[in-house]
Amino acid sequence: MFRYKKIGYVALNVSDIEKSTEFYDKMVGLQHVETNEKGLSFFRCSNDHHNVILYPSQEPGIKRVGFQLENDKQLELAYQSFVKNGLNPREVSQEEQKELKQGRSFRIVEPNTGLELEFYSKMMHMIKNFVPKHTKIQRLGHVVLNVVDVDSTIKFFTEKLNFIVSDHLGENVWMRCFPNPYHHSFALIKNTENKLHHVNFMVEDIDDIGIARNRVLNSDVPIAFGPGRHEPSESIFFYFLDPDGMTMEYSFGMEEFPEDNARDARLLEPSPWTLDRWGGKPSPEFASYGKIEEKLSLIEK
Ligand SMILES: CC(C)c1ccc(C(=O)O)c(O)c1O
Ligand SMILES: [Fe+2]
């Protein structure tokens, strides 16, 4: 099976590109790289050209998630595996690759949720390091979806995409893209609707969490949950909402797995204390907004 480097970027549809560009720059603390002639707004929190892209759209939500493979050889292995499994990988045009500052890239549609997934190995490496503003963001950490058919989606991710389950909690599951060490870069939460749950950015310092809480409290940005501590990855978390109501998370600390002899996935107790060891409760808006831009018509389910 093919090997990943990491979750590379998330593309979000936003209803007011100027408002959201300001929010992701000033409130989240990403670096705004450019807004191109089509109005796409690129952000980074690493030396990659982008880790978040905002697309202007009437329907806010999640457009796609990009995963970086270890190298070109692993990318080709992924392509061959997708063809063999009938996943109909579609190459991104040269023109769009140029727009995205990426090398060869291809996309498939996750058949249970309709989410488009992209795979690439090369993205423009920016000369100047990401300089944190108020929050020492280390990386795009994970994307989580609310999912109707969790079992089939787990099966797809583990059998077709080479993800490994790190933990189960009832029907919910946290997965890592092998051999990336972090406890999860993608997770599935059982729901009656397929939609975005949240986007996570990992931060360097516990102070980043406390400072963020006060910064958000002193603004008109809604707090969605936290600060608290998650049992599955042991991270300390804080969630807030973007201008379209999509949930963003900062988290500090995360269990890391070795490539070989990693522990088995646990069956964690389904209790509110498992989600927050400190006993907090999410707001009603938590993880509620973010339509998945559907691409289902392009594939045979
Ligand atoms: C409450 C959500 C689903 C959640 C739960 C646990 C973790 C973790 O262990 O890191 C998360 O990151 C979450 O977002
Ligand atoms: Fe999370």
UniProtKB/TrEMBL annotation:
The keyword S-adenosyl-L-methionine does not apply. Keywords: Aromatic hydrocarbons catabolism, Dioxygenase, Iron, Metal-binding, Oxidoreductase. It comes from the Bacteria. Coiled coil: none annotated. PROSITE patterns: EXTRADIOL_DIOXYGENAS (PS00082), VOC (PS51819). Pfam families: Glyoxalase (PF00903). Its cofactor is Fe(2+). Residues 6-122, 139-253 form the VOC domain. Belongs to the extradiol ring-cleavage dioxygenase family. PANTHER family: METHYLMALONYL-COA EPIMERASE, METHYLMALONYL-COA EPIMERASE, MITOCHONDRIAL. This is VOC family protein. It comes from Niallia oryzisoli.
